[in-house]
Amino acid sequence: MRLYTSNQWKTLCRQRLKASKILFNAGYYRDSVNRSYYAAFAVATAICVEHGDAVNFPSGWNNPTHEQLPLLMCQNGNLAKTTRQNIGKILRFLRSAREDADYRPGIAVGKSTALDCLRQLTTILRLLGINENDSINSN
Description:
There is one protein chain. This protein is 69% helix and 0% strand. The chain is mainly alpha-helical. It has one domain: Nucleotidyltransferases  domain 2 (Four Helix Bundle (Hemerythrin (Met), subunit A)). It starts with 5 loop residues before the first helix and ends with a helix.
């Protein structure tokens, strides 16, 4: 099996970021939260691939598990320690918000939650030196 490249993961991030914004603007806040998480998951996975962490992905997988990803980011020696810690914390926050949005209809997931998730995603992109506008407009 051939692993996805970092660029393929970054393309997925761009697509999911754009979808998250479209869904947010249309008032589909739960779906926007979902796409924000998966955009963050994709870009973090791209960074793991660049760092050589794919050897730690589960056998036969192109990506880490949801539980594994924040830990891999926190151990990524290519990034400053505070950057690693911040990204790990944000990934855990976004995953929790996504699980609320996807699996817990009794929990309110509204505009403020979706906006917070978009902001947290933007923070990850900024910490990684990825310009949000460039990432949206690229193909």
